[in-house]
Amino acid sequence: MQRWKLTVEYDGRPFVGWQRQDNGPSVQQSLEEAVLRLSGETVRVHGSGRTDAGVHALGQVCHFDLEKTFTGLKLRDALNFHLKPAPIAVVAVEPAPEDFHARLTSTGRSYVYRIVNRRAPLALDVGRAWHVTRPLNAEAMHEAAQVLVGAHDFTSFRASLCQAKSPLKTLDRLDVERVGDEIRVHAAARSFLHHQVRNMVGTLELVGIGKWGAADLRRALEARDRSKAGPTAPPDGLYFVSARY
Amino acid sequence: MQRWKLTVEYDGRPFVGWQRQDNGPSVQQSLEEAVLRLSGETVRVHGSGRTDAGVHALGQVCHFDLEKTFTGLKLRDALNFHLKPAPIAVVAVEPAPEDFHARLTSTGRSYVYRIVNRRAPLALDVGRAWHVTRPLNAEAMHEAAQVLVGAHDFTSFRASLCQAKSPLKTLDRLDVERVGDEIRVHAAARSFLHHQVRNMVGTLELVGIGKWGAADLRRALEARDRSKAGPTAPPDGLYFVSARY
C-alpha cells in the first residue's frame, strides 16, 4: 500500500465544489473515478481544504492510498488521461509517508481572491473574478485588513453551516494589492472557517467603496455575529493557492 | 456625425476571428449588431488589427461613425448591454477626430503570447495558452529572438494567405520571459504580417527545446521562404494587447 500526495489545479465552474455531493459533479468524485479507471481500486481522495461550488484551485493538495505499484510520473500522466475532459489537472504527484494526511497534517493554506474593478463587464475573466464596478481604494482595504490579522474569534466571518468546532483562528496574512484594474487579496492561515475568505473579502469591499473604515471592521470582528459583517463575496474570484506541510 | 474610438477586450474562442465572415460569428459583426440595436444605425466597425479565430484581445482598438449623439460613458455602457452574452467587453470609449482610423493611423501594435510549459494538461488555461510539455529554455529563446528584431523581410514568417503588399516589417520588440511554468513572448511593431507572431513563436519553440539555435533562426529569416521556418503556434496563446496612435 502506498500513500500518494497530489497537487491539483481546477476550474471550479462546472463543479458543485471539492466535496462529493448528490446534486452534481465534484472534484473529489472526478479524482476518485479517475483512480478507479486507472487502477481498478476504489479509494477515498482526501483534500487539504474543501472548496465551494465555483471556487478554483491552483494548488489544491490531496492524498489517497493505492495497492497497485506506480511511479509518480506514470500515475500523474494516467490520472490526467482519465480525468479528461474535466477541467482538472494533476500538476504533481509524490509518494507520501503513511502518516501524511492532506487535511490533518497541513500547517498552512493560502488563497488569493481576484476582483476586477472596472465599469466594463468581464470578457476574459467571466467566472474567474468578482466584477466590482464601484471604484475601490485598495490601500484603504489593505490597511483595514490588518485588523483581521492575528488570533481572533472569527464568528462574524463564519458561514452558518460551518462545521469547525471553534471559531478561533490565527490569520497570518491578509494583503490587498492593486495590479492595473485588478485587486488581489492574499490570505494565509493554518486553516480557515467555512466562507471565511469570501466573508472577509465581501466586508473589505465595504471599506474599498468608502462605506466602512478600519474601525467598522474592528467592531464587526468584535461583535462575533455574522450579521454584523459584510456580505459573502461570490465564489468566482477565489483560488486555493497552496497547502503547507 | 461623430467618430468613436473603442478599446475592446474579448475571449477569441467562440469567434471565427475579428473579421466578419459567412461561416460563423465574428467580433466585428457582434460589435456592428450591438451598435445597430442601440442606435438604429448600420455602421462598419474598423479594427486596428484582424485577429484570427481563437485569438484573444486585452485592448483591441476599433472605430466607427454615429449620427446620433451620445456621451462616451453612455455609449460604452449601452454597447456592453447589447453585446451580452458574447464574451466581448468595451473597456473604453472616446470621441475621436474625423481623420482617426483604427487601422490606418496606428503607429504601433503589441501582442503577448502565453505558453504554459509543463507536463500536466491545462485546467484553468484551456484555450487561453499554448500547452508545451517539453521543457523550454526561455533564455535561449529570448537570445535567439533578438535575431528577428529590426527591419527585415519576414517572408519566412508570413502566412501564404497574407494580403500585405510588402513582407518588409520592422520588429521593435520580441522579448521572452519565464514566470513560473509560464513563458510569455512580448512582440511589438508598427504592424505585423498575417500569422507573423504565431509563426515566430512556433519557430522560437524549436529553439526552446534545443533543436534550433540562433544561427538556425537567422538562416530561416534570410531564406525568405515560409517552409524554412518553424510551424505556426496555435491561436490559443495569442493576445492583442494594445494599439498606439
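qc> Chain A has two domains: 2-96, 108-240.
qc> done
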